[in-house]
Inverse folding.
């Protein structure tokens, strides 16, 4: 019988199940590695499904994204992922997976993920604008291929919202100096 490869730090089999690997990876903490794998699989499946659907409808991929589209999607991704992860009004989306902590100003809240396994992993995804950004950017990018006019229109709303946010902060700072 062939020997299993072992981890050089702890002599742990490198082919151990994710549940066991989690206790090795983060002793004393719950790190739902199997649930992260499920979320990664869901993302990958969604991306592949989106690309297959676009191909079935004979949509052509662009040679390369334009600078304008990159800026539009980048800024819209920033705002939309932040709205999904932090906005008071979207807390109903996160509530099944999180626990309210406190208000954090400018219409945002701090929440902590709760639960175990997949429930915890989804909560961690939903409170992290950096984590959600990949999902949002992917959806907007696929939208640029499948429905470019609609995607640009929707993205423009979030870009305008971002510009407004910066102007609100600048206005408040100017008022505070007076």
């Amino acid at each position: 019988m062939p020997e299993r490869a072992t981890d050089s730090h702890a002599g742990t089999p490198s082919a151990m199940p994710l549940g066991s690997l989690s206790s090795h990876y983060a002793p004393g903490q719950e790190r739902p590695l199997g649930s992260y794998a499920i979320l990664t699989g869901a993302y990958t499946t969604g991306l592949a499904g989106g690309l297959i659907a676009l191909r079935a409808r004979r949509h052509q991929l662009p040679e390369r994204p334009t600078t304008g589209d990159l800026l539009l999607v980048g800024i819209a991704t920033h705002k939309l992922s932040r709205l999904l992860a932090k906005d008071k009004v979207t807390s109903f989306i996160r509530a099944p997976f999180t626990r309210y902590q406190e208000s954090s100003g400018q219409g945002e809240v701090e929440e902590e993920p709760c639960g175990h396994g997949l429930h915890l992993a989804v909560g961690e995804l939903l409170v992290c604008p950096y984590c959600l950004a990949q999902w949002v950017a992917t959806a907007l990018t696929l939208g640029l291929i499948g429905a470019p006019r609609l995607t640009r229109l929707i993205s423009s709303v979030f870009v305008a919202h971002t510009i407004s946010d910066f102007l609100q902060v600048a206005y408040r700072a100017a008022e505070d100096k007076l």
Summary: Residues 1-11 have pLDDT under 50 and may be disordered.
